[in-house]
Each structure stands twice: as C-alpha cells, then as structure tokens.
Amino acid sequence: MEQEKQRLSIEAARLYYLNDYSQQDIATRLGVSRPTISRLLQYAKEKGYVQINIIDPLEDLGALGEEIQHKYEMDQVHIAYSPMNEYQIIQQHISKRAADYLHETVQDKDIIGVTWGKTMHAVALQLQPKQVKGVEVVQLKGGVSHSHIHTYAAETVNLFAEAFRTAASYMPLPVIFDNIEVKQMVEQDRHIHRITQLGKQANIAVFTVGTVKEDALLFRLGYFSQAEQELLQREGVGDICSRFFDAEGTICSEEINARTVGIELSDLRTKEQSILVAGGHRKIEAIRAALKGKYANVLITDQYTARALLL
Questions:
Q1: Where are any strands of DSSP class E within 168-262?
Q2: Distances, alpha carbon 100 to alpha carbons 38, 80, 153, 241, in Å
Q3: pLDDT, tens digit (0-9, with 9 covering 90-100), for 13-30
Q4: Where do the DSSP E strands lie in 187-308?
Q5: With 279 labelled, which of 69, 87, 148, 292 sits at a CA distance of 20 to 30 A?
Q6: Rg (CA), the chain
Q7: Which residues are CB-neighbours of 203 under 8 A, at least 6 positions away?
Q8: 221: three-class secondary structure by DSSP
Q9: Secondary structure (3-state) at 275
C-alpha cells in the first residue's frame, strides 16, 4: 500500500511540476479524485520526492551593494535588478532606480548639479514631480556645439527642473575649447561665472561615466587631434563631465583638462551626495576608476556590473 502511494505521488508530481498538467487532468489520467491528487502532491513534498527552489533575483542585491560599499569606501550603493546583461536593458533599470532615489532624497533648497548623455536623459525622463521649495538645478558641464547626434543636454536639465518645480541654469558653452586662453576669457563673463559657481555650490551632483572607445562622442565629433585621442585611449579608461582619467582615477592630460568647461572632478569629492549612475560591460573599467578616484559617494548600478566591480 505504501509503495503504491509513493508511486502515485511521484507520478502525480512529475505530471504536475514537469509537464504542467492541472490537478484535474492528473486525476482523470490516474483514475482518482482531484482531492486525492492534492494530497499526493503534498505527500511528495513532505517525503522529499519534490524539492522546490525559488530563485529571487532581488534576494542578494542588498548584500552585493554592501560589498561594493565596503570595498570602495562609499556612503551608499544601490543595485537595480536587470533581467539581462545588455546595456540598453541595464540602462533602463538603473535610470529608474536613480530617478526613484532622487525623488526620495531631494529636499527644499537643495542645489542639484546635472550632466548630460543618454543615461542622464533616461533618468530625467523617469523623474516623478516632487513638491519642494527653493531647489536649483544647474548644468555641470558645457555642451556639444556642432553635433548631428542628439545629446539631450538642455532637455535633461529642463526635465530635472520641471520635476523639482524650479528653473534650470544652463551652461551655454562648448564642453571643450580649442584654446585655453579663449576658454579662460569666456569664463570671466559674469553670467558664466555665476553658473560655474552654482555648480561648485551644488550639494547633489548626478552624473555618469563615458569610455575612451572609438565610438565615444567627443572622438567621433573631432574635438581632439589624432595625437590627443591616441593619448586618451592609451592612458585613459573613461571620463566624467568630459574630464578624462586613467585606471586610478587620475587626470590623463592636464592640458586637455584645462580646456574643458565644467565642474572639476576634485569638486565632486566635496559633495554631500555625488551620485554615479552607470552600468554595463563597456563601462566597468571607467566605473572602477571613478570609484578609485573617490569621485562618487553614491553608486547606482546593476548586479552584473556590481559583481564585476568586486573582481
């Protein structure tokens, strides 16, 4: 009798768990009642014939974030779950997590410094309006003046401003000048100086990292000579606010850096919240270097990137 019960319970379990039969279908197939099938399935679990494992993709994200936080000495790390290790999907999920974090974090009278790019635009699109007072939003770096590629610079800053019920302060300059002297002269303009100072005063900075791969925007647009591009690709691993750094987070070229318009990387270290939003295989080197350089104290990324950062 016991052997027959074992046989029936195992057969019922195979049909139910492996072949997706309903309990009624199994009852008809085995010639017993549906309640009997329910009891047989319960018996199979109790005896250990059936073992159910539930894989929770969110289960270890907190622990993973704590490991990153400890390794790179950060204030906070938020890991967004991405169902696939593909850049576009990762970007979608980390930008949503960043938008949610900003909604939770931003308070009255905060000054938010914002960069531009696809990731930042994705964050901006997912921001939810928040009733706050006295918030200011400022663009942290210049734009691209002769691009046929949409950088969403103005749109990004404007969407941030709309979400937090304020007006945006734009940086109406190219991100890199050909000539240091011209750049220095332009920065003396009263309006430009005010925007620059507002960026320094920002207590929250939100940014991503770029790479030094051939398809990097500034490379494609010819902002650098061939020799300069080769230097940045040879010595560097990425950029923040178009300021290029090596694997240790050190500026690659002081001459190029002096021609760049926007917040200095050293200023990011002084922010209450310096928030890096980045993920994907292509950006791992740049993210790691940015964390080594202590340019971010808050990281928002995905679980694939986080695991790579621990290697």
A1: 168-169, 204-207, 210-211, 238-240, 243-245
A2: 43, 11, 21, 23
A3: 888 888 888 888 888 888
A4: 204-207, 210-211, 238-240, 243-245, 273-277, 298-302
A5: 148
A6: 27
A7: 110, 111, 271, 272, 273
A8: coil
A9: strand
Residues in the chain, how many?
311
Q: For residue 91, name the pLDDT band (cuts at 50, 70, 90).
A: very high
DSSP state of 143: B
How far apart CA 99 and CA 124 sit, in angstroms, is 7
In the chain, the N- to C-terminal Cα span, in Å, equals 56
Closest CA relative to residue 98, chosen from 66, 122, 116: 122
Residue 123 sits at the vertex; the CA angle it makes with 122 and 128, to the nearest 5 degrees, is 120
Distance from C-alpha of 194 to C-alpha of 296, rounded to nearest angstrom: 24
- CB burial of 204-243 (b: ≥16 within 10 Å; e: otherwise) equals bbbbbbbbbeeebbbbeeebbeeebbebbbebbbbbbbbb
Q: What is residue 71's three-state secondary structure?
A: helix
Q: Are strands 210-211 and 238-240 parallel, antiparallel or unpaired?
A: antiparallel
Which DSSP letter does residue 282 get?
G
CA 311 from chain centre, in angstroms, equals 19
Q: What is the dihedral of CA 12, 18, 20, 25, to 10 degrees?
A: -20
pLDDT digit string (tens) for 132-181? 999 999 999 998 765 566 678 889 999 999 999 999 999 999 999 999 99
221: Cα within 13 Å, side-chain hemisphere: 16
